[in-house]
Amino acid sequence: MNHKNLCMASVLAFAIAAPHAMAQEEGAMEPESYIYATYHHCKLDKLDKADKLVEENQAPVYNAMVDEGLITGWGWMGHHTGGHWRRINFFSAPSLNALLDAQDTFGERMDESAPKDGPQMNKICTSHDDYIWRAEAGGGSNAAGRSVFSTYLVCDEMREARADEIMKENFAPIYNRYVDEGKLGSWGWLSHWVGGKFRRLLTISGDDMKSVLASRDALIGELYADDNEAGTEFNQICSSHVDYMWMALDGR
Length: 252
Description:
With 252 residues, this protein is an alpha+beta fold.
């Protein structure tokens, strides 16, 4: 298995994931990035087989699509700690149309190169949840680190644009400082475009999970201090969440 660092979609990590860094020179236009992420429910005793199928069959197709400019990145991530999702696969593109075209192209190429991959994978990962995310903000290195902490947030849809403002105006300078100081490899803020109940996704990544968790604890102390009105308002808008810890297994 190729244990490559993933560009986690501003992280993305997915992370994922995803999956290119969004740090820009001051005043520069941020490039758009959309991420198609599939969150899998899998049989625990067959996960190694699923990872092998990705390495042998899917990775060559995704890598060729990166080389051809059809996608900007892809990733396969493994569950470390959290809920019921056991694996994520994702890919990113600069527009929704490019993202959907890439999905069709990948399916067509897999049917040609490895027609048995889909049926085999479906026996291992028997159900899934699909999301399309749009990268809103983030920063860090393209080689962001293998360990990713993802927070999936449920937000008030009428006020979630305000949550984006708080993230970009109040929180981003703090996250960027952690990146500059080497405490994080990257971070990302993604908005829901298509999918389930989660409206926003916050990711932070680093070289190992212990350092990521230490930075997360310190960040919480800064972002949500009693005298931080922005943090209080943010929590009122995005009032519940689910946390996952992921490990990058393959991708580019």
